[in-house]
Amino acid sequence: MEFKRVKYYSIAFEDHNSEFLDFQQRMRQSHKTQLGELVTLLYEIGELYGAKTNFFRDERKADALPPESFQYLGQDDQDPENPYGLRLYCLRITESIVILLNGDLKTAEKVDDCENCKRHFQLANKVATKIEEAIREKWITHNGKQLIDIDSFEFEI
What pTM was computed for the model? Predict the structure, then answer.
C-alpha cells in the first residue's frame, strides 16, 4: 500500500499469502472493530505523518503497532475485558518505508507468555535480523519510498 508519506510492504513465504494479508483475514473474522482502528492508524501514518518512531512499539529488533500511547476505542469483539488489544508486528525501515508482518490479539503482559503473539513476535525479529543484514550488505537498498531489489531477495528463517 502506498500513501503520500509511507509505502507499506509485506512479506510472503513460499506459496502463502503475505503475512499482512493473513493478519487482516484472520482478524476480520474475530476482531474486526480493533482491526478497523489499526487500519485507520496505518492510513494516518501513511498519509499524514510518516513512520516516525513514536508511532511504533520497540519489539527488540522489530517494531509493532499500535504505539504504547494508543488506546483502542472499541472493545475486543470476543473478549471485551482484554486490556491489550491487537498487535501487528512490522519493521520500520525509514520514515517512508515500513514492512508489515503479522500479529494477533495480545492476551498477556509479556509477549513470551502470549500464545497468540509469541510466534509472530519471534518471526518478526528473525525477519528484522535478515533485512538489517541485507540492507547493511547492500543486497537491498532504498530510495525514497522504494525498496530496491526486494523482489529478488530471498532468505531462510
Answer: 0.91
Place of cell 535478515: 130
Q: How many helices (H) and strands (E) does the chain have?
A: 3, 7
Q: Which three cell numbers stand for residue 61?
A: 529488533
Beta carbons of 27 and 64 less than 8 angstroms apart: no
The full set of domain ranges for the chain reads 7-148
Instruction: Indicate the DSSP class of residue 126.
Output: H
C-alpha cell belonging to residue 148: 530496491
**pLDDT tens digits for range 79-114:** 667 778 899 999 999 999 999 999 999 999 999 999
Q: How many CB atoms lie within 10 A of CB 96?
A: 20
Cis peptide before 66 (omega within 30 of 0): yes
